Amino acid sequence: MMEKERNKIIEIRNLKKYFPVKGKSATGEKLCVKAVDNVSFEIYEGETLGLVGESGCGKSTLGRTLIKLYEPTGGEILYRDQNIVKYNEKKMKPLRQDMQIIFQDPYSSLNPRLNVHSIVSEALVEHKLYKKGEELNKRVLEIVEQCGLSPYHIYRYPHQFSGGQRQRIGIARALALQPKFVVCDEPVSALDVSIQSQILNLMMDLQEKMGLAYLFISHDLSVVKHISDRVGVMYLGSIVELADKEDLYNNPIHPYTRALLAAIPVANPDYKSDMSIIKGEIPSNVNLPKGCKFNTRCPFAKEICKEQVPETREIEKGHFCACHFAGEI
């Protein structure tokens, strides 16, 4: 896929999203949560970029900032080479057709007062693609059936469905406008394991049919490996490693990536990983450690790690890592 599809659809450069909090630091500076801190990467047409990391590392905030549900604090967001960071809502509205999101919780993200037909058709009417009538009903039925629901489901309400069916409604709503790029914010984490595989296969089928590009956010490394082409690892608001999925899983370079992979359960009682499991608590996003953000938990940390922020370097072709000792560990 990567060799055929090389046109960038999304590129972000030094993207930041800070949330102010009450109080000031010892030097008198205003405090803020650095949820997304100088993140850069690109996503190509038809590609799935997986994004993994611990809870609270900023994955969901990054996804929402990327499509401007949150206003960025700094940096650039290039959609097909146009910088949309300073676009107001009026200028963003046409781009909403191309950029959509599937939310994590399939129940709270759906309006309980609207039936499936209203939920799916709302954006179609808002963007004036269809007027209420036969053509709109036909389009709603088409997308609902593509997402694995039956025609008689369109006049039911969210509380009348199972979790998996509700997520299918969320997917139908996101894809009704025929977008080109979709942020998938942990779309299967709230579902049973047996249902997760159905939803993942559905998303992969729809991606192939519609030529979609995904940013797939998850904390489940096995799920990310199944669906992604490339994988980025996020820690305290920053990308610490980014590579093709096979390279990342077979040859992890950053100590944090190695620790995450070591924590994956293996169905073999005699198996022992040569990678150390991560220890300690994740630091506060308000008072970040000096130097490398991971130095307080890293078993390989040295004095330079506590003083200097590591640059992101291309260690091998397409394999990027932000570690002073990348390739040496």
UniProtKB/TrEMBL annotation:
InterPro entries: AAA+_ATPase, ABC_transp_ATP-bind, ABC_transporter-like_ATP-bd, ABC_transporter-like_CS, Oligopep_ABC_C, P-loop_NTPase. Keywords: ATP-binding, Nucleotide-binding, Transport. One of its GO terms (biological process) is transmembrane transport. Belongs to the ABC transporter superfamily. One of its GO terms (molecular function) is ATP hydrolysis activity. It holds the Pfam family ABC_tran. This is Peptide ABC transporter substrate-binding protein. PROSITE patterns: ABC_TRANSPORTER_1 (PS00211), ABC_TRANSPORTER_2 (PS50893). Residues 10-261 form the ABC transporter domain. SUPFAM superfamilies: P-loop containing nucleoside triphosphate hydrolases.
